[in-house]
Amino acid sequence: MSDNIATLEVNGEKHEFPIIKGTENEIAIDIKKLRGATGGVITIDPGYKNTGSCESAITFLDGEKGVLRYRGYAIEDLAEKADFLEVAYLLIFGELPTSEQLEKFHKDIKKESVVDDDVKKILDAFPKSAHPMGVLASLTNALTAFNPSSVNVDSEEDMYKAIVKILGKFPVLVAWTMRKKQGLPLDYGDSSLGYVENVLKMMFKQPNEEYSLNPIVVNALDKLLILHADHEQNCSTSTVRIVGSSHAGLFASLAAGISALWGPLHGGANQAVLEMLEGIRQDGGDTKKYMAKAKDKSDPFRLMGFGHRVYKNFDPRATIIKVAADEVLGDLGVEDPILDIAKGLEQEALQDSYFVDRKLYPNVDFYSGIIYRAMGIPTEMFTVMFALGRLPGWISQWREMRLRKEPIGRPRQVYVGENHRNFKNISDR
Length: 429
Ligand code: CMC
Fold this sequence. Notes:
The protein contains 18 helices and six strands. The protein is mainly α and 429 residues long.
């Protein structure tokens, strides 16, 4: 490999491929011409552990150093100094907004935050036992039917309209998903409030009481949403990009992303962590027993909230959330024994060679559920909250993919099935 050329030898023949470098000096071999040059040879990389699917200018992360930046800004600064809507604007449009831009953005979102009342009929059809992520994915897809005009991606105005529409309507769907399960009336929030404040009011307002906002809760939710807002080409984001690459609309692409997020190896981990910690508590709090289970290869149990495909040192989001968990529980006066169990597990794992050798550290989901629980959010809603946070990331990645006119995503495969066989009539089988 020279500075800008990589040479690959296939069947004794050498082929040269350009090397591209990102702005943070990440190096990639550009194999776009591989099949043509080699007469059909492809690369294979299940799980895409070594494969870049795109060039992107949105989020940078360095898994070895525990660095995460949105559009160049450190996650630590954004979590401390910005609010969620500012971060959403930054992710989607590339720059931090001025006060006028932010005000207009919020005003435009508020204008779009009414969901067609008929959506309630769809919601009515779900059983109370339905998982909120399934309901949210379905309702997001249903928005496509209620807002059928397709987005002209060559028109900035059209793109903008679709973006403010989903940013306005999605929190309503999030709140309705939770309230329906709890048998509470469905409501449209209060457009005099900030974005995050309105989310909380829509979720928690009781029909017979005034709702008063708790600044500690507002601040904690704002921070959690910022920390979840984007994470480059993870499973759900790649799903949004690949679905959108067929020119499916924004809402349909987002609905697919929600389904991808649901799995316990991805966003579903925050629910799984809480259930695991609760299970350990009910089983007497013996963390050593569960550490042993996690290390036992014949046991399917994994320490949920540990490990990450990219972070192999620490997850900077987890560091911020751990401090926030202490603060929020302290400020709210909540004593939760599972916080101690979580800290105990982390302490043990950090000293255990199984976890140290495999570079398994707490990830963003290890402590987030503890904060959600302290806020009164039901466990099954945790991944929905993750989706609310990830929404601007998905939108920005979809927008970038469409603006760059990326080709339809269509991986190749290596076929390992039967060779040609003669058809056998049913009587001969
Ligand atoms: N508990 C026990 N062992 C683990 C864990 C864990 N949580 N995570 C990884 N390992 C082991 C795994 O068994 C394997 O061991 P060996 O080399 O002996 O076969 C090794 O560590 C490497 O694991 P992997 O599954 O090949 O790593 P991956 O990069 O494919 O998976 C992961 C990353 C996040 C899916 C995985 O670490 C995991 O399942 N963690 C638990 C679920 C979780 O917390 N997910 C949230 C991720 S962060 C938020 C998000 O992205 O949505």
